[in-house]
Design brief:
The protein has 9 helices and 11 strands. The chain is α+β, with helices and mostly antiparallel strands and about 350 residues long. The protein is elongated. The relative contact order is 0.07.
Amino acid sequence: MARVGNRGVGGTTSLIRHLQILRTVTEAVSRSLDLTEVIQKSLSALTHVTGHEIASLHLVSSDGKMLLLRGERGLSARLREVNEVLPIGQGLIGRVAASGRVRRVDEAGRAPDLLPAARAAVSADGIRGFLCVPIRARHRILGTLSLGRQTEERFTGEEIALLESTADQIGLALDNARLYSETRLQLEELRRSHTDVVRAERLAAVGELAGGVAHEINNPLMIILGQVHLLLQSQDHESVLNGLKTIDGATKRAANIVRELVLFAERSPLRRGRCKVSDQIYKVLALHQSRLEGARITVQTDFQEVPEIWADSNQLQEALFHLIQNAEQAMSAARGGGTLTIRVRPGHDGVRIEVADDGPGV
C-alpha cells in the first residue's frame, strides 16, 4: 500500500510539473508575437522536466532543404556548432523533419543514423536519452523540437506527450507570426497602392489644368514682353518706372501660378499650420480661372469673417480643387455653363465651407 501511495504521489507531482510547463508555453504563445521570446521561454520550461535536460529547436530553411538552429538551452559550444545547420533527411533530427514521426533513443551515442560530427559531440557531453518531435502548423512541418538527457532515465510516454503539446503550441506561434507578418505586408501594400492612386489622381488633375495654366502664364508673359518692348523705345523715366512695376507684378503672378501648381502636384507629408480659408480658396480659383471662364461659369464668393484654422493648406486646397472641378464638369456637361457659389461661414468649433453649383446634382 505504501509503495502504491508513493508512486501515486510521484505521478501526481510529475503531472503538475508538466501542466505548469505547458501553461508557461501556452501563456508565452498567447501573449506575444515575438517568436524569439516564445522559443526561449518554451525551451527554458522544458529543461525543468527533471532538471537534467538540454533542449534545441530547429526551423526549416526558406528553401526547405536545411534545418536552422533557432533556439537552444544547455548545449555545449561543440554541440551547438554541429547543430547550427542540419540537412533534412539525414541524422536523428533531420529524419524527424523529413518523416514527421517522433524519435526516442535511449542511448543517443549508439544511434546508427547519428551524424559523425554529432556522435562525437554527444559522447563528449554524456548525452544518453534523446527525444525529438516535429513542429507542425496547418499540416506542414515547420521544424523540430528536441530534448537530450544526461541521465539513464528514459523519456516516458507522458514526457513525449508533453513535448508534442509544446511543439504544437510553438507551431501555433509560428503560424501566428507568419499571419501577422503577412497582414503587415498586405497593409503596407494597400497603403502604397492608396498613395499611388492619390498621386495618379493628382497628376491627372494637373494634366487637366495644364492647358488653363499655360494660358494663365502666357498672359503675364505677353504683358512682360510688351512692356519690355515699350521700355526699349521710351525716353521717359517715369514711364520706365511704371513699366517695371507692371513687369514685376506680371512676373510675380506667373511665378505664383507655377508655385501653386507644383504644391498641388507634389506628394508631401501632412503639415498642419495656421491658415486663412479665403486665401486657400482664392489660390484654387486662380488655378481654375481659365477653365471656368472657358466653360462660361460665373464664380460668386460670399465670405463671412471667420478665424484662421489649424490645417494642412495643401490638403485643404486639394479638397477644394476636386469640389470645384466636379462642379465645373457637372455644369459644363448639363448646361454649358452656370454659377459656382462658394461660401465661408463660422461653424460649430470651426469654419464651414460651402461649394454649390446650379448643375443637375448627383
